[in-house]
Design a protein that fits this description.
Residues 1-24 form the signal peptide. Keywords: Signal. The chain has one helix at residues 2-16, and strands at 27-32, 41-48, 52-59, 62-69, 82-84, 93-100, 104-113, 116-119, 121-122, 129-133, 138-145, 152-162, 167-177, 182-193. The chain is mainly beta. It has 1 helix and 14 strands; from the N terminus they run αββββββββββββββ. It is globular and about 60 Å long.
C-alpha cells in the first residue's frame, strides 16, 4: 500500500539522518538454540562505529558473525535481541533491532540455516523487515499463527485515513520461513478498518 510504504520510509529516513548519541561501546550477551539441539548457544550483540552493530553466534569453537545497521533512539544503547521460532522447527531465530524510531521499531531476522548464520530474506532475495509500534497515525505489528509445519509469520502495516473515526488502511501479509531462510509469501490481504479489526491483529508471543 502506497500510504504504508510512505509512512515507513519517512520513519526510517528521519532516524537515519538524526545525530548518533555519544556513548561507550557495549555488548549484550544472550542465549538462543539456533541449531535445535536443545542446548542454547551464546549470542552476543556488539556495538560498532558508524551506526553499526555486530551479531555473533557461537557454535562450539566457531563464531559466526554478521553486521547490520543500528540507529538508536536518543540517549539509548543497544537493544537486546529477541529470540523467536518463526517456523516452529525448534531452531530459534534472532530478531535484531536496526532502527528505534519515535513510535516504530524496525527489525531484521537472523537464523542458522544450513551451515551458517543468515538473514531471512523474501523469495526475491530482499531482506525481510519487520515492524512494531505505531502511534495514532500508523499501525505496525508482527506475530505468528499456527504450529508445526503450518506456522506462518504475520506482518501488519497500516496508516490512518480517517482521523474522525480512526479508520486505517493497510495490509496483512503472511509468510512461511523455510529451512533455507527464505520467507515465502502465503497471503496478502488489504483493507480498511479500526485498529482492533482482525485484519490488523498479530501476536508476537505466538512466535516463541
Amino acid at each position: 500500500m502506497r500510504i504504508v510504504a510512505s509512512i515507513l520510509a519517512f520513519a526510517a529516513a528521519t532516524v537515519a539522518f538524526a545525530a548518533s548519541p555519544a556513548y561507550a561501546a557495549e555488548e549484550i550477551h544472550w542465549m538462543a538454540d539456533v541449531n535445535g539441539d536443545g542446548a542454547p548457544e551464546p549470542v552476543v550483540l556488539s556495538e560498532l562505529p558508524n551506526d553499526t552493530q555486530k551479531l555473533t553466534v557461537k557454535l562450539g569453537r566457531i563464531a559466526y558473525t554478521a553486521a547490520m545497521p543500528y540507529y538508536p533512539g536518543p540517549d539509548s544503547g543497544l537493544t537486546p535481541p529477541r529470540v523467536v521460532d518463526m517456523n516452529d522447527d525448534n531452531r530459534q531465530e534472532i530478531m535484531v533491532t536496526e532502527i528505534v524510531g519515535a513510535h516504530t521499531d524496525h527489525f531484521s531476522l537472523w537464523g542458522f540455516f544450513g551451515s551458517t548464520l543468515k538473514q531471512v530474506r523474501t523469495a526475491d532475495q530482499a531482506p525481510l523487515k519487520l515492524y512494531e509500534g505505531g502511534a495514532v497515525a500508523t499501525i505496525a505489528r508482527y506475530g505468528c499463527e499456527g504450529t508445526g509445519a503450518d506456522r506462518q509469520l504475520v506482518s501488519v502495516t497500516a496508516g490512518i485515513v480517517d482521523y474522525d473515526n480512526y479508520i486505517y488502511e493497510g495490509e496483512r501479509v503472511t509468510y512461511h520461513v523455510d529451512s533455507t531462510g527464505i520467507a515465502h509469501e502465503k497471503s496478502r490481504v488489504s483493507g480498511t478498518g479500526a485498529a482492533n479489526s482482525p485484519l490488523f491483529q498479530a501476536d508476537p508471543n505466538a512466535c516463541k
